[in-house]
Amino acid sequence: MKTIYFLLSLFLSVSCYAQKANKSNSEKRPNVILIMVDDLGYEGIGSYGGTSYDTPNIDKLAATGMQFNQAYAQPLCTPTRVKLMTGQYNFRNWEAFGILNPKQKTFGHIMQDAGYATCMVGKWQLQSYDPPGYPGGEHRRGIGMKVEDAGFDEYSMFHAFHTEDKGSRFANPTIYQNGEFLKETDGKYGPDIFSEYLNDFVDRQSDKPFFVYYPMALTHGPFNPTPNSGDWKYAEKRLNDETIYFKDMVEYLDKIIGDIVDNLEKKGLREDTLLMLYSDNGTHQTIFSKMGDRTVQGGKGLTTEAGIKVPFIANWPGHIKEGTASNEFIDAIDFMPTILEATNTPIPSGFAPDGESFLPVLKEEPVQRRDWVFMSYDPKPGWDKKQFAPAEFVLNENYKLYGDGRFYNTKKDVLENDSLPSNKLSSKEKQLKKKFKTVLDSLRKYPTYGWIERLAPEFDSLVSKHARIELVAEGFNWSEGPVWLPKEQKLIFSDVPENKIYQWHNLDGLSLYMSPSGGTGIANGNTGKGSNGLILDPQGDLVICQVGDRRISKLTSLQDSLRPKFTPIVTDYKGKIFNSPNDLDYDSNGNLYFTDPAFGLGDGKSAIGFNGVYFLSKNKELILLDDSIEAPNGIAVSNDNKTLYVADSFKKQPKILAYDIVGDGKVTNKRIFFDATELHKASISKQSPDGMKIDDKGNIFLAGPDGVLVISPTGKHLGTIRTDKNTGNCEFSDDGRYLFITADDYLLRVNLRPYSK
């Protein structure tokens, strides 16, 4: 019930905002300048009590505006930037570190459409991040949003393209400005170029209100001298990287803020401009700052206060009362709706930001806003991000609950050293923890389905105690044969009776990948069926068990989803067409193993007369390995190429068979590796062993009775990911973190390690 109230409150807040946003446009619309500092926690600002650095211009903004004491950001920059620019939680639209999905709508696009002149200066780093050669990076390099497509009429940006080409952001900077790289930047300072361009843009606006977004380069490392540093006069020292320069960087940042404010005053635009200063995350961990007698170590990358609590100051003379402070909770998602409401810009149709406007707070009007902040944080995949563990949590000013159950009194335990034991909580703490749990549960992208049965201690290291099964798509006839496409970071899978292959992407959702998939109407085919097992060959091409055409083929062309073209790989054994190729696997040498049961024929007749397990060498030599199995189904080769596993779906004795691989096309020592007879009898689904996959430790994940059984390399049943329905197959993502499960009419997903590095 509380979840319903929570969702209803969100709906009402959006509805109320929409009504306000649709007021008459006769009122003069304000200009907006949003400045986001890079890597500076609240302890670095004088008005927040910081005493290590002189920040008179920022302090003056606070003294003449409103300072927020409960402002938060993600622990690292890209997660915050994506939230800030789109107004949505990361779990909705996260792609990868240094990447903003190009299909996203940013506040630049919306303000542009609303008739604002738009400008962005500073650091981009949202088109490409992973350096050449970084594992998996070849699939992500250059896939993000281009700076020229982000919704800004003009721009002057650092790191607009690949990381290895980004150059310096400070001395002798590399800056991409309005479609070309600046020349003759030697001896110049990047932040000066950015702020000068910003001020020039402001000076040139007369016909339209303007929206300026300035994601600063300061105070991110490298820690270089500024033009106000004593060492700047030595050209050879301008790129020295030493923390001693951090103080100079903070104070130069403050100078730039002062220059921007002075320019607005000179142009008579201060009363017409909402100016907001925010930060993307905490200070770098190598920096120690003072707040009086207290020393604060930077916490960038951490989920503790030092990593996520940031300064936020809003200033708008005549609209925001001078010298006010607020304890309202501010998150990056809140800026989008605030900017839209302040500028009387309607929310675009079909767009739903997660944030809540804080404009009434600025105007000291009564408003009901959430009294907590939720974060979904996972900076991976991305270069140098393996050191960080994903997290999700809810907090208020005194307490914090993580998705893994850790509960802290952060007022007393700011470093989060001691989680509060459940049996020692006060009644108020129990109520608050329950409330936070409701928030966590309500902010899930996909509903939870099924449950996880733990039979052995070893299971917990493979499937975390905090793992849950997500229902990500449904409505299929019989889903099967999932395969992960690492380049596109998506899953494709068969719907066998429908003769289709679907594709699923975490951002784009479900769509048709191809049809027909396995029954193309060839002679002697079984046109009532489509594809089943799918796999990528060593070259990355899609290889398909075409049940309908009774052959194994390679996809050679896919102009669109309705016009696939295939090239047969193997069609028959000794001139006799196969039964219904079912599942397949490659060994590390590029040889193919596959099963060919008759049950895919339906009422059709077998031309071969037996159910087979085959070996197809990379030189296209076909060898029959076993013709005695009642119902060969799933198949897998061990990581060391020494063992072949075959699922036998024969209902009288369902099992996994194992063979020793002693050479190409040669197996011996056939034996029962795992007997599923009793599990089958006791199951709800009466499902026999089906498709299987092997993880990097050699454990077998078998689709079988009531879900996915996890079986050790020695044949021990460790646990089951319970779907309690017919379950056909499973597949890992390329990083091994996610397991996808095709279960009858469902596509399921399990994050096997939700809170681990």
UniProtKB/TrEMBL annotation:
Gene3D superfamilies xrefs: Alkaline Phosphatase, subunit A, TolB, C-terminal domain
Positions with a binding annotation for substrate: N582
Cofactor binding: number and manner: Binds 1 divalent metal cation per subunit.
Domain called SMP-30/Gluconolactonase/LRE-like region: residue spans: 478-743
Residues noted as binding a divalent metal cation in the record, renumbered to the chain: E480, N633, D690
PROSITE patterns: PROKAR_LIPOPROTEIN, SULFATASE_1
Domain Sulfatase N-terminal: from-to ranges: 30-344
Record-annotated active site: D690
Leader peptide range in chain numbering: 1-20
Family annotation (InterPro entries): 6-blade_b-propeller_TolB-like, Alkaline_phosphatase_core_sf, SGL, SMP-30, Sulfatase, Sulfatase_CS, Sulfatase_N
Coiled coil: none
GO molecular function: arylsulfatase activity; metal ion binding
Keywords assigned: Calcium, Hydrolase, Metal-binding, Signal, Zinc
Keyword Calcium: yes
Keyword check for Ligase: no
Cofactor entry: Zn(2+)
Protein family (similarity comment): Belongs to the sulfatase family.
Protein name: Arylsulfatase A-like enzyme
Annotated source species: Zobellia amurskyensis
